[in-house]
Amino acid sequence: MIRIVKLAKPPKILTTKGAGQTRKDCAAYDDSPADYRSGEKIFNIDSNVYRSESVRKALRRAQYDKCCYCESKFLATSYGPVEHYRPKGAVQQARGQ
After folding, report:
1. pLDDT in tens, the chain (97 residues)
2. How many domains does the chain have?
3. Secondary structure, 3-state, 13-31
4. Within-domain flag for 94
5. Within a domain: residue 45?
6. Distances (CA, A) of 63 to 15, 25, 51, 68, 79
7. Domain containing 48: what range?
């Protein structure tokens, strides 16, 4: 994995719409954590927030134009979507969490 250098100022959409969605998701989880842990309920991801051009640009800058997991150049393997926040393979939720 490569080192991610977080930007001093995040894209505005993350601090407005993204922050609001995070608050809603946390409240929903707090209301029924067992349902989320079991997979009965899932969070709705607003792709307009996380796929916005400002977010993609910030990630490309922070990660040196590479996927921080496989280190392939973003635009060499795809058009640069934000599609996952952890490696796709071999990831499991720890039991009891």
Report:
1. 778 888 889 999 999 999 999 999 999 999 999 999 998 998 888 888 888 889 888 988 888 888 777 777 877 656 555 655 555 555 566 665 5
2. 1
3. HHHHHHHHHHHHHHHHHHH
4. no
5. yes
6. 20, 26, 16, 6, 15
7. 12-77
Residue 66 included in any domain: yes
**Residue 2 and residue 71 in contact, taking contact as beta carbons nearer than 8 Å:** yes
Tell me the residue type at 6: K
Question: Could you write out the DSSP letters of every residue in the chain?
Answer: -PPP---SS--HHIIIIIHHHHHHHHHHHHH-HHHHHHTSS-PPP-HHHHTSHHHHHHHHHHTTTB-TTT--BHHHHSS-----SS-SSS--PPTT-
Global confidence as pTM: 0.64
Tokens (6 digits) for 2: 């490569």
**Would residue 33 count as lying in a domain?**
yes
- Residue 24's alpha-carbon distances to 9, 29, 40, 44, 71, in angstroms, are 23, 9, 18, 10, 33
